[in-house]
Amino acid sequence: MRKKIAVIHDLSGYGRCSLTVALPILSALKVQCCPVPTSILSSHTGFSTYFFDDYTEKMPLYIEQWKKLDLSFDGIYSGFLGSEEQIGIVIDMIKEFRTPETTVLVDPIMGDHGKAYQTYTERMCSRMKELVGFGDIVTPNLTEACILTGRKYRSSGWKRSELLSMAAEIWDMGPDSVVITGVREGNYVTNVVAEKNREPHFLRSLHVGSERPGTGDVFSSILAAQTVKGIPLTESVKKAAGFVKASIIKSDELHVPIKNGVCFEEILSMLIRG
């Protein structure tokens, strides 16, 4: 049977992020992507103008039809959520569809570069901790890890013991595995892989190219697909980080505008080949 993942994310028509990333990435990895749209946008919010349609009221009606069909999923992957109410809807969905075989990945998209996104209130950040508790795997970037644990953000100079302490605090919220992404260590970017009762891994690679929107969505989509196929987390993180790096390099080579995200289509064959 083909693996299936319910992907809860927004749909941005332009800019390579969220569902427009998850659909091709999961398909390339031979996993069926079953979208649950949280909102519809003409482009991601990094552009100067965009259309936005909030799907909060529609999500329960949408999910109710899946219940009637008695659907089941190998994975549930939660991405960008636009309101406190949506966080509650996702928690209810996990409770409804989770089985012992379901892997739940929560990407707690709340902020970057030391600041929460404008849409995120203190109450939403608090509710996100509750959602994190329902995840098997949680993938915060450094900013989001600081928000979740109440630490003061700094862009560099983190001791590895501090990073592991943050991961342990996130463990205490409920998940078994925490991947803290995008930690700068000099000229390197490190992803911290912390699994309960296993030796932690600090996976470093040389920092390359420009920071671009959507790279976190590419990373988490690969991670979600790999883990439902039973591939170890550390190996999955290496694959995801390697593909993101290659996508950034290719995008810079082709002079793709920063706001357009990563031109992963050019190298999607890397994932298809396995």
TrEMBL record:
Domain (Pyridoxamine kinase/Phosphomethylpyrimidine kinase): residue spans on this chain: 70-252
Record-linked SUPFAM superfamilies: Ribokinase-like
Record carries keyword Zinc: no
Keyword Nucleotide-binding: yes
Keywords: ATP-binding, Kinase, Nucleotide-binding, Thiamine biosynthesis, Transferase
GO cellular component: cytosol
Family annotation (InterPro entries): PM/HMP-P_kinase-1, PyrdxlKinase, Ribokinase-like
Recorded GO MF terms: ATP binding; hydroxymethylpyrimidine kinase activity; phosphomethylpyrimidine kinase activity; pyridoxal kinase activity
EC class of the enzyme, as a word: transferase
GO terms classed as biological process: pyridoxal 5'-phosphate salvage; thiamine biosynthetic process
EC numbers on record: 2.7.1.35
NCBIfam families xrefs: PRK07105.1 (NF005491)
PANTHER family: HYDROXYMETHYLPYRIMIDINE_PHOSPHOMETHYLPYRIMIDINE KINASE THI20-RELATED (PTHR20858:SF17), PHOSPHOMETHYLPYRIMIDINE KINASE (PTHR20858)
Protein name (record): pyridoxal kinase
Organism: Lacrimispora celerecrescens
